[in-house]
Amino acid sequence: MAFGADAGAVRSILVTGGNGGLGLAIGRWFLEQDEETRVWLGVRSSRVKAEALAAEFGGRCELVGLEVTDRENWEAAVARISAKDGRLDVLVNNAGVHRDSLLATMSDEDWSSVISSNLDSVFYGCRAVIRTMMGQRFGRIINIASLSALLPPVGQTNYAAAKAGVVTLSQTLAKEVARAGITVNAILPGYIETEALSDMDSDAAKRAKSGIPMRRFGRPEEVAAAVGFLACQDAGYITGSALKIDGGIF
Ligand code: NDP
Asked: Model-level pTM greater than 0.95?
């Protein structure tokens, strides 16, 4: 599969939340698919797993400090990538958190940290890369939203609102940049086996699986393959889409 615009050039890919379950799987997918690819894993507090992936792939995988709620961090990260690769082909806005509680008892902090980590982050990230991508006349932006955007569960007013915002931001931006050869798509995972599900006990997991037609949680690699497809040249006519990966729940 080919990713960048120019054959022979390094394809430069930035994945935020690069130390998390999905971020690592997405990074690995690109590294294994294409030897001309350099993957930048955006990390903040934890970086041990990202460092292990970088060690496995040598100079083709690098870490870049990126607190996604901080616009100056974004500018610095994109400047570092552009200085090294001279381009940025793919941005995967993957970092995110959830802090669930009923709205009646939700703290201001739980509201604003979820909105800012999941939604402000996507705005800052898209804005930080868009000029570079326009200059290249090529770009792929893939935003990781959530099935909660369409089927909001009780206790996720903050997260569902943020992820629904990610979907509509993606659809709007897709129209704004279509003529510049840039596609923007959202992915809506259902339950995927990562740390994000670690607060679910085994009874809750059993109940959740019974509501999934496939009767299992998804694997991070199954999301990574879809991200990879949306990033490739052959997916150039897919833009503004919202792809559910949920084992048939919706
Ligand atoms: P993980 O908890 O494994 O990873 C999340 C990653 O995001 C971590 O590396 C975390 O960094 C990073 N992160 C969170 N907030 C910030 C921030 N403000 N700045 C920089 N990095 C940040 O979860 P997943 O891999 O499962 O989640 C990836 C994405 O997929 C998220 O957007 C999530 O909402 C979405 N998703 C996941 C689903 C699932 O079932 N797993 C379902 C639907 C959507 P650190 O470790 O330093 O905190």
From this structure: yes
